[in-house]
Specification:
The protein is mainly alpha-helical and 100 residues long. Helices cover 60% and strands 6% of the residues.
Length: 100
C-alpha cells in the first residue's frame, strides 16, 4: 500500500468549518511550508502501479513511503483486532450514509 506522505491538496478546504479558523490557518501554513505538491505526492502511487520491480518480484501487501521505499507499518496498522473494529465501523458508517 503506497502512502503519499503529507501532501498539500485542496482536501483541507473545509478545515475552517471543521476545526475553526485558527487551526485551519495553522494547517494551511504548515501545508504551504512542509507538504509536498500533489504532483510529487502522486509519485509513490505511480511507482507502485508502474514499477517493473513490483511486478517482477510479485510484491503484494507491502507498505511503501515516498518514493518507493518499503517500510514496516506501525504496530497499530498490524493489530488485527483494530483492523476488525475499523472494518465494522466503516461498514456501519457507509450503511448509515446510504440510508440518508
Amino acid at each position: 500500500m503506497p502512502h503519499p506522505g503529507f501532501v498539500y491538496t485542496d482536501l483541507q478546504r473545509n478545515n475552517k468549518d471543521t476545526f475553526g479558523s485558527v487551526a485551519a490557518n495553522v494547517y494551511d501554513l504548515a501545508g504551504k511550508m512542509c507538504a509536498a505538491k500533489p504532483e510529487v505526492g502522486a509519485l509513490n502511487q505511480l511507482y507502485c502501479a508502474t514499477s517493473p520491480e513490483i511486478e517482477e518480484k510479485d510484491i503484494r501487501g507491502k507498505y511503501f513511503v515516498p518514493v518507493g521505499h518499503e517500510m514496516r507499518p506501525s504496530p497499530y496498522a498490524l493489530d488485527e483486532e483494530l483492523q476488525e473494529k475499523l472494518w465494522a465501523f466503516s461498514e456501519k458508517l457507509v450503511l448509515e450514509k446510504i440510508k440518508e
